[in-house]
Amino acid sequence: MSPYVLLFNFFFILSVIGAGHALLTRKQPNSALVWVTVCLSLPVVGVLAYVIFGVNRVRRSATRLREEFEQQNVMGHLKPPDHRAHTCLLKELPKELIMLEKIGRAMTGTFPLKGNSIQPLYNGKEAYPAMLEAIKEARESIYLSTFLLDKDPVGRKFVKSLIDAHNRGVHVAVLIDGFGRLLSWYSVVRILKRNGVPATIFLPLSLFPPQIRLNLRNHRKLLAVDGKIGFTGGMNIGGTRDSKGHRRLSDMHYRLTGPIVSQLQQIFMEDWAYSNGAPHQPLPAPMDHTGNVLARVLKDGPDNPDNPLQTSILATISAAKHSVRIITPYFLPSAELLSVLSIAALRGIAVTIVLPVKSNWPFVHWASRNYFIGLLEAGVRIFYQPQPFCHTKLLIVDDCYVQFGSANMDPRSLQLNFELNVEVLDMNLAQQLIEHVDDTVRQSQEVTHREMVSRPLPVRIRDAFFWLFSPYL
């Protein structure tokens, strides 16, 4: 048999295997159809693309590792929830909060924790000094997980503070995403390790041995100090200013105290164990009550087949009685989210979506515009926030429910990334953030239906073309 025939047969078998794998493992029929077509029509390139972007090799191994560490009782000293106490707590909740609390409990299997205090921090001007001060005052432990830790002046301050804390005997552990590490010119992990600080990379990318998992990113941002103070939200560390010192983006982060910090620490430990193969130091005991805020952490990732974050967002918007406010840097909604937002607007809910007027990823901005006409026709109001680029992720339902964190309103965040949001049931915090959103809306430009339908034909074609790739942007 000719070697060319053998080579053709080999590539054909690879294509069939790739197409069969996609057919059996993809959740959505359109996704399965795309990958089957790519594998069969592009025998070499298509299968390679599917192996890199389409195969989820994390779910099984992450689930297995988490079960192993739970059996070893890594988190065992955390007190189990007092169901009677939570039953009493729920009876004390205002009527409008009870339904929203039930949704989160159904998605996560956990009760909200009472006794917390949550402070919004606007931009790096407020967030970075508060985080650095917490690191400086640390006495027992510092756990930092971030998508990006840049080697700019801000990043260098954090690296120095972490090294100083390690040198004075604090247990420090730093986890940085493998893809996010590539966005910085120099890996700070090397600097930390050179100074003795335990640091590791979540799913590092390498050619030898081949580990190319561009689609699986740890997008979570959290800092937990001494089991007492936590920080989370949408903010990376560094990269917020250009070479001339001008602000490149705006963002929000949050300072948390109270029992909720124990949930942040637990998530860090799970991610550290998965990345490093072994647990770090034991968790500090949960902190006493510091306020009156009821909150719970929502985590999601490709190791969780139930998509609790996306489902909680859909269910919470469906339960809205008066209003839905959304700020997100990237808006590529699923068909389910589109339906929920449109139906909410059609039944009289005031739905407001705030997006950046100019995205740092232009093709995402173009693709998102292809969703606007149907939403505008349903009565959803969409606003473009002026520069600098807004990286904030925030959902407010009615006057009592807040969800913030690392997740964007796009398929990557809600289906592929490891994400962390915090769900808050508190009218005071909700009102504070509603004022922020409403003030932002007043400074923003509303997108009109006429504007969208009157786009020139080349622009509409461009927007629709990139819309085709929404699940992969």
TrEMBL record:
One of its GO terms (cellular component) is plasma membrane. Pfam families: PLDc_2 (PF13091), PLDc_N (PF13396). The chain crosses the membrane at residues 6-25, 32-53. It is a multi-pass membrane protein. Its EC number is 2.7.8.-. Keywords: Cell membrane, Lipid biosynthesis, Lipid metabolism, Membrane, Phospholipid biosynthesis, Phospholipid metabolism, Repeat, Transferase, Transmembrane, Transmembrane helix. GO terms for molecular function: cardiolipin synthase activity. It is found in: Cell membrane. It is an enzyme of class 2 (transferase). SMART domains: PLDc. This is Cardiolipin synthase.
